Amino acid sequence: MAIVTLTIDGLAVSGRDDETLLSIARQHGVEIPTLCHLDGLTDVGACRLCLLEVEGSTRLLPACTAKPVEGMVVHTSTPKLQRYRRMIIEMLASEGNHHCAVCVSHEHCELQRLAGSVGLQSVRVPYLYPDKKLDATHPLFVMDHNRCVLCTRCVRVCHEVEGAHTWDVGFRGIKSEIVAGLRVPWGDVESCTSCGKCVSVCPTGALFAKGATVAAMEKRTAFVKYLVTARRSKEWVGDILEEGDE
C-alpha cells in the first residue's frame, strides 16, 4: 500500500493506491452519481453512472472500480459525462416498466432521484414495455421484475453478507433478469433465510415488503457497511448504525 497524489476536478487530493477513485473522491467531498455501488459490497461497475474522464486516457473509467495512479488528472462532471449519464438513465427508464406514481418506493427511489438530478422529463428512446412478471410467492416479500435495474445489489448482499446466495443473474443481454435459485419461484427456494437484506438494499421498488403502500417503502442501506466493518474488526458497536437502521 502506498499513498498517491492526484487531481480531481482541479482539487489536489491524496489516497491509498488500493482505494477506488470513487472512495477517494467522496472522502474529499466530490460527489459522483452511482446506482450499483453500495458501501460494504464488492463493486462490479454495472450501472456505468460513475464513469470518469482521465487526462491521457482515450476511454472512460468507472470510478467504483478504477484505482488511482500518481499524478492522475480526473474530471467527474464534464459535458460529455453529463450526456452519458442522462442517456444511461433514459435507457434504464425505457427498458423497464417504471410507474413512479403507484410505486411503493415513490420519492424513496434512487433511480427517481438520479432522473431528477439530470433534469429528465422525457425519454428520447422508444420504451420497450417488456412483459415481465411479479413474484409474490415469498410469504414476506415481493419481487417486481418490471422495476429491476439489474444493479445486482441483491445478488451481492445475499452472497457476501448473508451467505445464502439465493439470487443470481440469469440469461443474457436485454433478456437478463434476477433469478431465485435455479429460476424457480422465490417462495420455493430453501436457501432463502427471509432476512430481508436484499429488499433493504434494492435501489428501486423491485423488491419490497408485502403490505407496503405507495411511497411507504423507504430503504435502509447503512447496515451493510456496518455489518461488514463489525465482522472484519470483530467488534459489535451499536452506535455505528444510523438512526432508523436498527
Describe this structure in words.
The chain is α+β, with helices and mostly antiparallel strands. It folds into 2 domains: 3-77, Roll (Ubiquitin-like (UB roll)), CATH 3.10.20; 84-240, Alpha-Beta Plaits, CATH 3.30.70.20. 24% of the residues lie in helices and 15% in strands. The chain contains 6 helices and 10 strands; from the N terminus they run ββαβββααββαββαβα. The strands form 3 sheets. It has a 5-stranded mixed beta sheet with strand order 2-1-5-3-4, with helices on one face. Strands 6-7-10 form a 3-stranded antiparallel beta sheet. The longest helix is centred in the middle third of the chain and has 17 residues, at 79-95. It is globular. Residues 240-246 have low confidence and may be disordered.
Short description:
With about 250 residues, this protein is of the alpha+beta class.
Q: Largest sheet, described in full? A: 5 strands, mixed
Instruction: Could you tell me the CATH topology label of the largest domain.
Output: Alpha-Beta Plaits
CATH class of the largest domain: Alpha Beta
Number of domains: 2
- The averaged pLDDT comes out at 94
Describe the global form: globular
Provide the spatial order of strands within the biggest beta sheet: 2-1-5-3-4
Unreliable stretches, pLDDT < 50, 5 or more residues?
240-246
Report the order of strands and helices. Answer: EEHEEEHHEEHEEHEH
Please compute the radius of gyration using only Cα atoms.
19 Å
Please tally the β strands and state the result. 10
**CATH architecture descriptor name of the largest domain:** 2-Layer Sandwich
SS summary, helix count: 6
Estimate percent helicity: 10-25%
